[in-house]
Sequence to fold (428 residues):
Amino acid sequence: MNAINNNPITDIRHKFHEIQVSPEWCFKNVRSTEQWTHGYHRYPAKFLPNLVKKLIENYTVEDDLVADLFAGCGTTLVEAKVHGRKSFGVDINPVAILITNAKTSPIKPEVLYAKYSQLLSILSENIECKITDHKLHEKLDYWYFPEDKLKIANLYYIILKEPDESIKNFFLVALSNILKNCSKWLQSSTKPQIDQNKTPADPIKAFKSQVNQMIKRNNQFFDHLTYNGFINVPSEIKLEDARKTSLNANSVSAIITSPPYVTSYEYADIHQLTAYWYEYINDLYGFRKGFIGTFYSLNQELNTHSFTGQEVVNNLIEKDKRTAKEVANYFNNMYDVGKEMYRILKPEGHVCVVIGNTTLMNVKIKSSEVFAEILQLQGFKIVDIIKRSIPNKLIPTIRDNITGRFSNYDNKNSKLVYPEEYILIAKK
Ligand SMILES: C[S@@+](CC[C@H](N)C(=O)[O-])C[C@H]1O[C@@H](n2cnc3c(N)ncnc32)[C@H](O)[C@@H]1O
Fold:
């Protein structure tokens, strides 16, 4: 195997075949994944909070700085705060930033109640408002019936007037999470697809029900943090690229993260409703840029740094060159992420990467083995590899055999995905 920077790297490929599932990392009996603010907003492939909790407890101590370079909806940051650890997250998706900001900003319950009653009274006076002063993106006409669009716009502009950032984010997240239910988007699908038979939920009723659930979660989070003296533990989330963050070198005690799957979820497509409503984007093309793991990178490179990665790419070239290039690009992006991880981590610090393998065009995409090699190539020492099974409810187990995207049973190309993943633990 290759070695750069004169770092000898150990061939650990056999370990992936030998290791058994560790039951203590499967959390089979966990009843709720919605504790604290975790349940604010749906997010594809989000972490199981108990998994992050166990990693935080095993690899960090109070006051440590924990980072997540693919923060998503902020599970690592929320758990860090619950455990009195400082945290820093980055994500390329502005919707992830909004959600994580709200989830890590507990609000005094009495303030939240007061703001909510204020919002409801403005809403009751304003319900017939016409959107004449604002220009909404024309794409929204495709997804919404006119009366629902009007109600959502009304809510949106009332929320925007809120001067307090935390309160505003709280209500924007509530609204964001009902946008799909209130649209014509096929409810069970992560693909943008109209359901001709759908009766969308009423935006006002859905919003109220969403806010009521979130208020309970905020209060529970607020009380826990106050009781433990963690309310002011800093937590920061930034819209940045995992390959080049603003974190200082040698500044982070531990990294707990889970990278995007290769060509499985198109986060830009999935979050387009929020992105159009909240004016984060003009078009999907621009929004997709920067995401790792997308099928739209149009990369031309077929060489990768890792030995296993190159094997995978070579197998794919025989099936489909475009897919081979996308996968090579994914591995090369991950190589750059590995480099950034090494830069920001303190010596002796741990990186914990939760990662699963997939199959594309009948070729096994051994992302976990490739990432283990990448970490070693950067100079990390792999100290543990844990295998866990994933409860089916947390991740779709059906994939389109051609595109590799998560799919449903009625797709004729569908294939069962083995619901297992690995936790790579490496030390600097
Ligand atoms: C598997 S999800 C992480 C979910 C997260 N663990 C959670 O609990 O919500 C992967 C994330 O990587 C983000 N991502 C993709 N490309 C990125 C990049 N270049 N830099 C930073 N984040 C990126 C996606 O937006 C997505 O939120």
Summary: The first strand starts at residue 65 and ends at 68. Residues 109-220 form one domain.
